[in-house]
Design a protein that fits this description.
This protein starts with 8 loop residues before the first strand and ends in an 11-residue tail after the last helix. The chain has 220 residues and is mainly alpha-helical. The chain has a two-stranded antiparallel sheet. It is flat. 52% of the residues lie in helices and 2% in strands. Residues 112-209 form the HTH araC/xylS-type domain. This is Transcriptional regulator.
């Protein structure tokens, strides 16, 4: 028997028998994701599945990377955003499972080709398939190299470029809805969420601080 508290992470291997019950009469809630084991192994280059002793973890690294999947229950994820999150999850599982990492060589030219493609796309939605093709590097090695060389994931890098584009448009007089769509976001709320996460304030508040007027179109 194992006991988990709010904020903990349960990690179960495929086909592992288990059950669960509330520790008190107040009941309990949880959110769950299923990940194909082969995806984790592909990301880790064929290594065995990371093992979490006791199946429970309070390591904050796991909780942090799982936030993206938890929010996807309420808001859709773009394909590249999901693949980024899978990469981060595999790395966190590997780290928390105490797997030793050897030194790896990075392909700078391949990462640069991917980054140039992102810039040329000007905010458009991009998949890891596309980046794999233009870079000539397999997707998970490219994801690893991109993080190591540029300090962020491909999806977060694209998001920052979209935010750069949105800010230029807003300063140029675009309303919030049009700027969001033109910069490659699903809608205004999608842009607002990433803007808040990156800069700590809403686009409207940012414009207000600059003395600019904001316009929002309400659609029924």
């Amino acid at each position: 028997m194992r006991h988990s508290l709010p904020g903990g992470t349960l990690v179960l291997h495929p086909d592992e028998l288990h059950d669960g019950e509330a520790g008190t009469e107040a009941g309990f809630r949880y959110r769950m994701i299923y990940v194909e084991p082969v995806v984790i192994q592909q990301i880790l280059g064929g290594k065995p599945l990371p093992f979490i002793p006791t199946g429970l973890s309070t390591d904050p690294r796991l909780g942090l990377v799982l936030e993206t999947f938890m929010q996807s229950i309420d808001a859709p994820l773009e394909r590249l955003e999901e693949e980024d999150a899978l990469f981060d999850l595999a790395q966190a599982l590997d780290a928390v499972g105490n797997k030793r990492r050897g030194r790896r060589a990075y392909d700078y030219q391949a990462a640069e080709r991917a980054r140039d493609y992102i810039h040329a796309s000007n905010g458009a939605s991009i998949t890891l398939d596309e980046l794999e093709y233009v870079s000539g590097r397999d997707r998970w090695s490219l994801s690893r190299d991109f993080r190591a060389l540029y300090g962020t994931s491909p999806y977060r890098y694209i998001t920052l470029r979209r935010l750069d584009l949105a800010r230029k448009m807003l300063l140029g007089g675009f309303n919030l809805v049009d700027a969001a769509m033109a910069a490659g976001f699903f809608d205004q709320s999608h842009m607002n969420r990433h803007f808040m996460r990156c800069y700590g304030l809403s686009p409207a508040r940012w414009l207000s601080m600059l003395g600019r007027q904001t316009c929002t179109i309400v659609q029924e």
